[in-house]
Amino acid sequence: MLKLVRKKTRKVGAPPGTLVHIGEKKAERTKISIMDYDHADLHEKESGNVEDCIPLRDAPTVTWINVDGLHETETLRKLGEAYRLHPLVLEDILDTNQRPKTEDFEEYIYIVFKMLSFSEETNEVEAEQVSLVVGRNFVISFQEREGDVFDTVRDRIRNMKGKIRKMGANYLAYALLDKVVDQYFIVLEKLEDRIESLEEELISDPTPSTLRSIHMLKREMILLHKFVWPLREVVDTLQEGESPLIDKQTIRYFKDVYDHIIQVIDSIDTFRDMLTGVLDAYLSTTSNRMNEAMKVLTIIATIFIPLSFIAGIYGMNFRYMPELESRWGYFVVLFIMLAIGGLMVYYFKRKKWM
Amino acid sequence: MLKLVRKKTRKVGAPPGTLVHIGEKKAERTKISIMDYDHADLHEKESGNVEDCIPLRDAPTVTWINVDGLHETETLRKLGEAYRLHPLVLEDILDTNQRPKTEDFEEYIYIVFKMLSFSEETNEVEAEQVSLVVGRNFVISFQEREGDVFDTVRDRIRNMKGKIRKMGANYLAYALLDKVVDQYFIVLEKLEDRIESLEEELISDPTPSTLRSIHMLKREMILLHKFVWPLREVVDTLQEGESPLIDKQTIRYFKDVYDHIIQVIDSIDTFRDMLTGVLDAYLSTTSNRMNEAMKVLTIIATIFIPLSFIAGIYGMNFRYMPELESRWGYFVVLFIMLAIGGLMVYYFKRKKWM
Amino acid sequence: MLKLVRKKTRKVGAPPGTLVHIGEKKAERTKISIMDYDHADLHEKESGNVEDCIPLRDAPTVTWINVDGLHETETLRKLGEAYRLHPLVLEDILDTNQRPKTEDFEEYIYIVFKMLSFSEETNEVEAEQVSLVVGRNFVISFQEREGDVFDTVRDRIRNMKGKIRKMGANYLAYALLDKVVDQYFIVLEKLEDRIESLEEELISDPTPSTLRSIHMLKREMILLHKFVWPLREVVDTLQEGESPLIDKQTIRYFKDVYDHIIQVIDSIDTFRDMLTGVLDAYLSTTSNRMNEAMKVLTIIATIFIPLSFIAGIYGMNFRYMPELESRWGYFVVLFIMLAIGGLMVYYFKRKKWM
Amino acid sequence: MLKLVRKKTRKVGAPPGTLVHIGEKKAERTKISIMDYDHADLHEKESGNVEDCIPLRDAPTVTWINVDGLHETETLRKLGEAYRLHPLVLEDILDTNQRPKTEDFEEYIYIVFKMLSFSEETNEVEAEQVSLVVGRNFVISFQEREGDVFDTVRDRIRNMKGKIRKMGANYLAYALLDKVVDQYFIVLEKLEDRIESLEEELISDPTPSTLRSIHMLKREMILLHKFVWPLREVVDTLQEGESPLIDKQTIRYFKDVYDHIIQVIDSIDTFRDMLTGVLDAYLSTTSNRMNEAMKVLTIIATIFIPLSFIAGIYGMNFRYMPELESRWGYFVVLFIMLAIGGLMVYYFKRKKWM
Amino acid sequence: MLKLVRKKTRKVGAPPGTLVHIGEKKAERTKISIMDYDHADLHEKESGNVEDCIPLRDAPTVTWINVDGLHETETLRKLGEAYRLHPLVLEDILDTNQRPKTEDFEEYIYIVFKMLSFSEETNEVEAEQVSLVVGRNFVISFQEREGDVFDTVRDRIRNMKGKIRKMGANYLAYALLDKVVDQYFIVLEKLEDRIESLEEELISDPTPSTLRSIHMLKREMILLHKFVWPLREVVDTLQEGESPLIDKQTIRYFKDVYDHIIQVIDSIDTFRDMLTGVLDAYLSTTSNRMNEAMKVLTIIATIFIPLSFIAGIYGMNFRYMPELESRWGYFVVLFIMLAIGGLMVYYFKRKKWM
User: Fold this and answer.
1) What does the DSSP assignment read for A264-333?
2) N or C: less crowded end of chain D, CB within 10 Å?
């Protein structure tokens, strides 16, 4: 289940800048993979170590360092030192509770956001924190665990597809961000399918578990909104192009990502409105049905309970009950019952209950 | 049914600028029709091809190229090349998931929005994406399928009605946009009719299907709002007149369209409020009726169940029941029953239930 | 009933600037009345024609042309030509669907808003569109039908009451607008009375028709809000005094009108909140009452149904039922019934249901 | 009960600037009391008349003229003339419908707001309009009736407590405003007490009157919000210090009042949220209880109604009913009843209803 | 329980600047502890008095004066005088009703906010007011009672951990604020745990007390929001770095705190949405269950009540009832009963109630 607040308790009390990993340990080992390229050449190193990264810092080629797994704080500290990251940035990278944000440290831009994926097993959305440090010639990406989302970007670099090899580090940052937002759309599609199937279920055959699923989905929407909404601001800041690290021709691409994020937020809000609508529809239908059942019950009970009472009276075993002896008593009582029943029916018809 | 997210999956993984048509294939063939005119002359070509369009790009006459059907990506690529469109613009034209927006590329303005129509068959609103590329001397319009909405504009050009022949490409863009917004009003009228008829139905004879229709309409309003709301911003940008492609005397016309869009949004929101109001009214009426039924049931049951119990007691067949032998037993019991019933009635009257 | 969208269909397809009257025809004939005055003189013409108006356009005196009835488009076209009105202005005057707005055309200001009145017959609010064209020396007012709202302004002009004769055309425009806003307060008073009487009705003796009236009122509030809300912006624009047509000393008066409009909007919103509150109160009271009834029903049924069942058992006519023959059977059974009843009462007392 | 709109009808039709008192007549006579002081001297006049005020206008000492009662329009007109007040200001002072606002007339500032008090008799909040006219050396305060709220300010002036005697007229205005806002806190405390006692009542022993009181309180919150909310803007304008009539050192004090008003608004909104919460809690508790009652009723009825039916069958008096003659008929039937009852109980246990 | 308004009554009437402690007396004695340090030296005094503080005011070392307990107004007055605090600041420090705010007095900045803690005993959040006065070389902190939250800061000063000893007074202020915000996260974790456990309880076994707890939590969220929301503005003002008292390098740290506060506010709002969601889920589940119960009851009652009535008829003891004498009467009646029952079942099946 998506969670908003992860245990931070062990951190409390430490001075700011202390490196503590806050979140679940999702990867076995911290894995560093390096891609170093320009228009002509490409050097790749699958599982490198921090020392491999240091000389690339000031090389004119574009360097992409991808770090999977955040719990080996010592490794990260070294990397941070080599690339001169502010202690608060390192702290934020390790704290997987971050709200999406971007900060401009002149030498580099720090961007943090959430990657979403839909787990087919649990039918739930999963979130993972991704941090990007974008410098003049390098991008460092931090993920909580190994994933295959960035593989298509890797392929494009390897195969020289698109213009990625011709552009700088900020275009690479765009490509990674774009990938993550594409991922959002896949999650949205799954959610829309799920909403529709639940909707149908609710109309045809509502069970308590349908209701619970809908409420779980609605809660998921609340959390997704919280995850995606601040990203809008992040990309807005990037597209304004105030940082010299973002080239003018890349801005148009960030604008495109911005439009996509707006669409994602719109969709999440709409889904939420829809789910509310579904529940309202369910409640008013239920209310309508109860009303129907109530009317039937009231009509039947109101007609037959008094009649049964009359029958009950003449079922009493008193010795002296003059009516019982009368020749026409039975028929008179039957007639009275019929009349009462008829009056009741007339009353209900007039009240428009029948 | 209106849908918010259309399958984008096949696109994911491709580099930005890859041309993939996202959406249903609504037209058999991509059809290009060309109108080229100035104050004096008019040249028309019903089903042209891309090659016909190229020489017109730099002609001083106003050229209107209308493209119906978006799935022949190769044709569109060629057209885009000829008119020097940015790859992201072509990508957006093909992706029918676009949120209405406008982008200024200096040489041309790109505008994308939704055309709405009301299908009498399904009683539902249908949406189609329309893209406009507005240059100095040309307008290219892209529709998902062939339609007759722009026919009146064509007639005005042919018959020299209004000032359309005397004005530039930006006035043509206004005329097309104005047409689409007029279309919105027709849809609104249909919806208002439908709301009113559902309202009456709900008051006179509510069936579960009435309720479902109302909820479907409410959901439609949510989606319509999402479709129209961003258009406000689009036209606001246009009317501010910052682009040199929009003539000063056309701005007043865009202002007019802007007012209309505000009215459309207002109406959609009001319809939504009304539908909520209708459902609230329905729920409170139902609740009132259930209360009535409940009261009747409670009164009847509370009066007669105890009396029936008394009758039940004297209907038992015990050999030794002294009351049964008594001369006045029957009448005493009848009197007691009457008294209990009377007391009950008095109690209910005091409680204001009767 | 107030309506938001009026049939515009017949208009669709015509080029912009085509004069078509959209709305009901509320007046028999278009009637033009003219008042031409300055500090010293006053010329009045009750039912003039367009030709009477033309020479007054450039006279130094203040000219007030009031037009009742909008369906004679030819008359209006002539008037518009004489006073050099933009075709879109004439179109807007005729389209009674306008959202209140103001537009500055340098030579004149165009203002359009709604006049409200409360019909005692139908107990409903009625809305009528009023357009003002305010020039340097003239005001043209357009109403959908003849009315007496502006009569007090006419009297003030005739009797030289207040400063109206000493001020320019913009003060006359203020006086007319002020009159219309005063009219709003009268409507608000009626509505407050109605809300209060409905409230009392709902508490003392709620009928389905009370509920319906409340919901109708709530819907009326939604529409009134839509009618009045944009007027705030209109008068705000006027009071900012950017147009040279508004004298500095008149601005203070427009500020006063602005305050009144804010008050009207505030009141409408408050009324809406109140009506929501009334309905909530009603629903929770109903729910409370049903709960009460339910409890009574449950208690009675739960106590007597099992007892009746016991009585039913000993009312069976089996030949061999040993208890029936017993000397004390009847009394034992009576005691058991008493015990069961007592236990039930105890149980309900403990559950706090009694 | 607080009212939003007071009858204005008699005013409608009069030209702007006409002095008509709108509101209830709350005081017998209009009473004018004058305090004239500087650091050294103090002159007081308890029930003065307009003539006493005139010479003080241009004296260097600080003059505080307090007017209780607004219905003697002639007196007010004279005072207004003496102090050169704009006709619209006098009109606003008399119209007790004002929304709190401030207007800068260069020579003086006009401030109007609501004074609140809690009536122990009716358990309701009462509102009264207070107007302040703040000049260089004078403050004129207008109240609807005589009150003792300003007495502590009078005492501070008399006893030279605090810095009031050392400061100018604008500090006096602050002191009066501060007094009124302090008054708000007293009302808030009363309301919080009332909310808490109603809350407890609703949990322990909800009566229809508890519900009605809560709804009345909620409505009161709506009105209080409307009364206090605009005051925030009023004091914000004053603390910005743009008027030369507000000394720089007094601004800090107006900031303090501003903070208090924010707190009052916050509290009112919180109270409203709380009351909504209380009602929601009540509704869900009621719903829970009805559910409980419903379950008990359903279980009892579902078990015993079929059993009673069986007993009813064997209570019929047909001559030929073979079972009745059988030796074990009675016991077999008893056993069948037991079995049916047991099955029902099992069914309900499985459905988790028991 | 968190309270919004604390009794201020005893204050009303006093001139501004009068020192009155508003709030509960939470500490036995006012305790002053002093830390005076620079990079090299540290002087500590655990329970000092005001006189100890005075000479430190203008020393170049950083001085931190912590005051626990606010009821000894005389001590505070002296301290305020020594450090030249504005009377309104002292008043605000003593009034524990403050809304979080910051005010820049040039020589020092005044910051007031709420410290939150979660009491394990009462399962409730507790709030305490903390005031900071931040000068060039000193920080004075005021707490309502002794607490251990600032102890880790003390340790960092003593042990020279982090950079606290190398930075100025404004970094100390940041460290204290950061501590308080860390505290918020601990409270949030507790609340999230509690929400989750209540959620489970509500699904598995809802009792009225579960409902009440959820409503209490929701109300707590309302109050927490009010406490934390204004703090966002406070820290925003500080991070803008307009005061010369905030060093440029500290601003980055205040930015960090700002991000944390945004996260806290986000979480509180999300919790509130979640609680609303939980209650909605509960209500719709309850409604679903009642519907189920209602259906069972209606089916059983509707089938058996008419059948019982028939049995009742033939249980009457009339002497002349021809059917009773008939040979097949009993079996015919049984068959009729079966037929009626079957028809009812068929009817309910068709209505989809079974």
Assistant:
1) HHHHHHHHHHHHHHHHHHHHHHHHHHHHHHHHHHHHHHHHHHHHHHHHHHTT---S--HHHHSSSHHHHH
2) N
Which of C300, C331, C335 is most worth mutating to test chain B (most B CB atoms within 10 A of its CB)?
A: C300
For the CA atoms of A17, A19, A25, A27, the dihedral, rounded to the nearest 10 degrees, stands at 110
For every residue of A129-146, which 3-state class applies, written as one string? EEEEEEECCEEEEEECCC
Q: Of the candidates B222, B279, B325, which has its C-beta nearest A273's C-beta? A: B222
Which chain C residues are within 8 Å of B250, Cβ to Cβ?
A: none
E297 neighbourhood in chain D, CB within 8 Å = 294, 297-298, 301-302
CB atoms < 10 A from the CB of C325, how many?
11
**Which residue of chain D has the CA closest to C152?**
D13
* DSSP code at position B96: T
For C348, the enclosing helix (H) or strand (E) is: helix C329-350
What 3-state class would DSSP assign to B128?
Answer: strand
Chain C residue numbers with beta carbons less than 8 Å from the beta carbon of B232 are none
What is the edge-to-edge ordering of all strands in the sheet holding E101-104?
A: E42-48, E31-37, E62-68, E138-143, E124-135, E108-119, E101-104
Does the beta-carbon distance from C301 to B297 stay under 8 Å?
Answer: no
Q: What residues in A contact B211, CB-CB < 8 Å?
A: 281, 284-285, 288
The span from the first CA to the last CA of chain A, in angstroms, equals: 49
* DSSP-derived 3-state class of residue A169: helix
Assessment of whether the complete model's pTM goes beyond 0.95? no
Contacting chains of B (3 CB pairs or more, <8 Å) are A, C
Contact assignment for C290 to B294 by CB distance below 8 Å: yes
Buried-state track B291-310, b at ≥16 Cβ within 10 A, e below 16: bbbbbbbbbbbbbbbbbbbb
Strand partners, E222: none
Has residue C32 got a pLDDT over 80? yes
Alpha helices in chain E (DSSP H): 50-53, 73-82, 87-94, 151-159, 169-204, 208-239, 248-313, 322-325, 329-350
Contact A315 E317 (CB under 8 A): yes
Q: What is the DSSP letter of B100?
A: S
Angle at E149 between CA E148 and CA E153, to 5 degrees: 105
Position D324, amino acid: L
CA distance E284 to D118: 40
Check CB contact under 8 Å for B284 and C282. yes
DSSP E296-320: HHHHHHHHHHHHHHHHHHTT---S-
Q: Which residues of chain A have pLDDT under 70?
A: 1-14, 17, 27, 354
pLDDT tens track for D274-319: 888 888 888 877 777 777 887 888 888 888 888 888 888 888 888 8
What phi and psi, each to the nearest 5 degrees, are found at residue E3?
Answer: -125, 145
Strands D62-68 and C138-143: unpaired
Question: Taking 60 as the threshold, does the pLDDT of residue E7 lie above it?
Answer: no
Tell me the per-residue pLDDT of D62-109, one tens digit each, with 9 for 90 and over.
Answer: 999 999 988 888 888 889 988 999 888 998 898 888 889 998 888 899
Q: What ipTM does this complex have?
A: 0.75
Q: In whole angstroms, what is the distance from residue E167 CA to residue A57 CA?
A: 31
Chains near A (3 or more Cβ pairs under 8 Å): B, E
Got the DSSP string for D264-310? HHHHHHHHHHHHHHHHHHHHHHHHHHHHHHHHHHHHHHHHHHHHHHH
Distances (CA, A) of B342 to A316, B304, B346, C307: 21, 11, 6, 22
CB distance C316–D333 less than 8 Å? Answer: yes
Q: Which residues, in sequence order, are bridge partners of residue C127?
A: C116
Total Cβ atoms within 10 A of residue E155: 12
- The answer to whether the Cβ–Cβ distance between E287 and A287 falls below 8 Å is yes
Residues in D touching C203 (Cβ below 8 Å): 212
